[in-house]
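Objective 1b: paired records.
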Amino acid sequence: MAAFVINQVRVMQAAQHAQTLALSLNISACNLGIALGAMFGGYISERVSIEFVGYAGALILTIALVMAKAMLIYSIGHAPFVKKATRS
């Protein structure tokens, strides 16, 4: 739950001029993720077996972590909201 609040703060910082829109899109994306996860879990349990739902979730998590790492590597120096550390 705490990570969600941190995410909301980062979204508000990134979207200075359209915070309400950014927050509503962020919540919509979270709800879409919950719905897709439930749908995918139901599909796996119905078509394969309930035993494989955890493995399917682990596979999705692995894909998400690889994508997040790739996005982080790309965003360093490209994204306007990423502040570079400066020495004073």
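Objective 1b, second protein:
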Amino acid sequence: MCQSWQANVLIWHIGIRRLLCWTGFFDEFLFFIGCDTTNIDDFRAYIEMALGEEWEINIIDTTSIVYLPAGLQHCPINVKKVDKPFWFGHIMLSNMISYSHS
């Protein structure tokens, strides 16, 4: 079992090429939000996130909330560029943490 904070810490390192792919047994939301509290849409980062068994690359370059239904493989998340800090977090719709990784 992976502690959620460990996965969060790993993705902050720019240039990490490959992390484990996770499949959650519950719905999850990931959020990427600009840190300027007067304008949370001021998002100055470029992130690639792989989704699905084929690891389809999705680009995040604006303030975003990503819905991940139960059973969807996700990660790695590669932070390619950061010009301004941003908030990353996740909400897991479960009363327990349980992942399958490959």
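Confidence is low (pLDDT under 50) at residues 1-18. The longest strand covers residues 73-82.
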